[in-house]
Amino acid sequence: MSATGLPSDLLARLEAQLGPGGLLTDEADCAPYGIDWRRLFPGRAAAVARPSNTGQVSSIVGLCREAGIALVPQGGHTGLAGGATPDASGRQIVLSLARMNAVRAVDPVGLTMEVEAGCVVQAAQGAAEAAGRLFPVSYGAEGSAMVGGMIATNAGGINVLRYGMTRSLVLGLEVVLADGSIVDGLRSLRKDNAGYDWKQLFIGSEGTLGIVTAAVLRLVPRPRYTETALLAVHDPEAALRILSAAQDGLGDTIQAFELISRCSFDLLERHAGLSCPLPPSPWCVLLEAGSSLSGLRDAVEGTLGEALERGDAVDGVLAESKAQAAGLWSLRERITECEAHQGKSVKHDVSVPIPAIPAFLEAADRALAEDAPGTVANVFGHMGDGNLHYNVLVGPEHDGAAINRLVHDVVDRFAGSISAEHGIGQYRVDELARRRRPEEMALASRLKRALDPDGLLNPGKVLRG
């Protein structure tokens, strides 16, 4: 055995496969790969394998399977559920896809691009933009998050309302299975009804069924005109009425519809020095619309004017430039960072049916007031697709697990989901097992056993054991 606790012959064979710089074994070098972004799930990697091509990924998986060593696939390491960190045993190897970062091809006519799993999402967006197209998945961590992780977690973000989750934008995948075999499904077809759509098994599976090494992604035409507005509203019911009116008046030009609480703006001012450009209000709505046709601004102004006339909005601002629009979005994008500066919080990435959002918020607030006094709910998120981040600011006297259950119980009452876009990871494993129907969990376990019979791909994530 080596100093890492792994068989010495395994390390030697991995080094031979990966070449110089491809395998990290020094404890200091491995340490950054063993802690999640929120620093809630500290682990210790026995080694970090850094392949530069799919063949090397296949070799790593095969060698580790022979030795009975678990692998933890890792991308940009930006997840919020601890889904890409090893456990504390020091017996798991992190498989980092960071060196597989090429944009292989962009097809502006067919509206597709082929990228490797380690490509940073922002780099993929940039390659699409250079071709005059848009890759529409967009979220706060896009400057560090990687395409493989985006696919493995079925990432959402601000544009789901118009373009859907990542799942809707993946046309083909290349995947390495638990036995080391490579399945090449890198097709760019929009219509392919030949047999099972197996790629869907791996999207959102968090590396527990196979390792995504490359993907063909769907692009969309880049809107020539974009309008961004911030509206002050009294309550979520008013925000819901504005959403409905915007759907009528703006149709599918609506790209984002975000709900932001007063608590979020207080945190932004306190920890980032960012002020809301509107007078204080209990809630705000951030709306963005995009189109390749002229006349969008008039349509947005009309929709906002009607909202003000009805009294659904009490004030508003429509960005006059790209810089002003970016400033409005910076308010939304920095909420999580400012929340972290405030102290401990119990995060909930939940979804409920869109019409139920006001009633859900009222019920969740009431449950907190009754059973967790002294806590404060910081609420923000993608109201247009039913996904809210109902995060609870807590003190040392509060039990995070109890608050988690409390909020999720309310989510269940509204037939919602305890994970809208962040995934299960380690963070929600027990809650998933407690809340999903037994037959659903049994089916998930059968899939896991079929594709990873030895349980060596990202163990302890999504499913127990």
TrEMBL record:
GO biological process, one term: respiratory electron transport chain
Pfam families for this protein: FAD-oxidase_C, FAD_binding_4
Domain of life: Bacteria
Co-factor(s): FAD
Alphabetic keyword roster: FAD, Flavoprotein
Record has Flavoprotein as a keyword: yes
InterPro entries, sorted: FAD-bd_oxidored_4_C, FAD-bd_PCMH, FAD-bd_PCMH-like_sf, FAD-bd_PCMH_sub1, FAD-bd_PCMH_sub2, FAD-linked_Oxase-like_C, FAD-oxidored/transferase_4, Oxid_FAD_bind_N
Domain (FAD-binding PCMH-type) ranges: 41-222
GO molecular function: catalytic activity; FAD binding
Record keyword Protease present: no
PANTHER family: BLL6224 PROTEIN, D-2-HYDROXYGLUTARATE DEHYDROGENASE, MITOCHONDRIAL
Family in the record: Belongs to the FAD-binding oxidoreductase/transferase type 4 family.
Protein name in UniProt: FAD linked oxidase domain protein
